[in-house]
Amino acid sequence: MIIGVPKEIKNNESRVGMTPAGVFELVKNHHKVYVQSTAGEGSGFFDEDYLEAGATILQSIAEVYERSDMIVKVKEPIEEEYGLVRQGQVIFTYFHFASSVTLTRAMLKSGAICIAYETVEDTDGTLPLLTPMSEVAGRMAIQQGAKYLEKPKKGRGVLLGGVPGVAPGRVLVLGAGVVGTQAAKMAAGLGAHVTILDINMKRLRYINDVMPSHVVTEYSNEFNIRKHIQTHDLIIGGVLLKGAKAPNLITRDMLKIMRPGTVIVDVAVDQGGCVETTRPTTHEDPIYIIDDVIHYSVANMPGAVPYTSTVALTNVTLPYVLELANKGWYKACEEDLALHKGLNIIEGEIAYKEIAETFKWETVVA
């Protein structure tokens, strides 16, 4: 099979779909790999590295799409790429279709086979291709939140760890999944007081067992959310509904009961956000303020640490890329249930019911 790795062109996205090590494995399995020139530079991988691994370097993104049977990316195609995707081509990347009807319609129109990293699901319900980026985003959420709590950034002027004689900052984490767990771990490591909310008691018991005593768990409901947002300095949105739009756990009216300078980092922005006032931002312009509450909702948070993110991503995607390349998408998805759940759109039809439900379409849309 011919695999193409284009340069990401989304705003401030420095990750790349595959490391030279990944290319080496594909070439070793007798596949041809085209990499767009400078695609890996943002992650610290250069054309020479890819050439040494056996790739062929192409100059333009159009050439990569035109010559490849399968495209391996990091982020969803953006408008400039819609016309490059063609009938029967496999696109393997993060799509998050539920957050964009425009993207969904474009991929339906293209006739491509869209396999989404974020919905590849193991038999135990875990999401192996989403996990490493959720780990990165969860940890980054605390770094960014701590920064924007500083007064020059319009925050409350709170140091999360506090100092002797001064109480530490308070962090509220919505969701005890991978993002929430990693965020709680980082915040606890800084010495902050952490409250983590979830509706899954099994997860709350796990958090309670593994976290230090200054991380406390509570059941998530509107009453508890309203109570805690009034006293916490940093709020992390880490709620995920597989393949569907995130629920709005914090509504617009709730902002008025928060203290001025409170910071919200909504990691769920890729799935529409779990805060009603969330809108996607970029690393170039990461925040906006509503009712004196700072919103940080960068849609590609791991893109700020591209070396770590690219290596972590290739570690988990490569086995699936090899499976797709060795067997073809149909046979690979037929034989691997986890990969089969990654099928979101197949040649003009929706194959993942949560997407159809989000837009109130039929499960299969021509």
Automatic annotation (TrEMBL):
Quote any Pfam family the record assigns. Answer: AlaDh_PNT_N
Instruction: Return the CDD domains for the record.
Output: L-AlaDH
Give the residues the record marks as binding substrate.
R15, K75
Which is a Gene Ontology cellular component entry for this protein? plasma membrane
How cofactor binds (record note)? Binds 1 Mg(2+) ion per subunit.
Task: Cite the Alanine dehydrogenase/pyridine nucleotide transhydrogenase NAD(H)-binding domain residue spans from the record.
Answer: 149-297
Keywords carried by this UniProt record:
Magnesium, Metal-binding, NAD, Nucleotide-binding, Oxidoreductase
Return the broad EC class: oxidoreductase
Organism for this UniProt entry? Muriicola jejuensis
The entry's NAD(+)-binding residues are 134, 198, 203, 220, 239-240, 267-270, 279, 298-301
One of the protein's GO biological processes: L-alanine catabolic process
Q: Which gene encodes it?
A: ald
Report what the protein is called: Alanine dehydrogenase
Question: Which family does the entry's similarity section mention?
Answer: Belongs to the AlaDH/PNT family.
Q: Does the keyword Transferase apply?
A: no
Location of the Alanine dehydrogenase/pyridine nucleotide transhydrogenase N-terminal domain: 4-137
Q: Does the keyword Metal-binding apply?
A: yes
State the reactions this protein catalyses: L-alanine + NAD(+) + H2O = pyruvate + NH4(+) + NADH + H(+)
Q: Which InterPro entries match?
A: Ala_DH, Ala_DH/PNT_CS2, AlaDH/PNT_N, AlaDH/PNT_NAD(H)-bd, NAD(P)-bd_dom_sf
Cofactors named for this entry = Mg(2+)
Q: Where does Mg(2+) bind?
A: E323
| Signal sequence extent | none
Q: Which GO terms describe its molecular function?
A: alanine dehydrogenase activity; metal ion binding; nucleotide binding
Tell me which EC number(s) this protein carries: 1.4.1.1
Q: Where is the active site?
A: H96 (proton donor/acceptor), D270 (proton donor/acceptor)
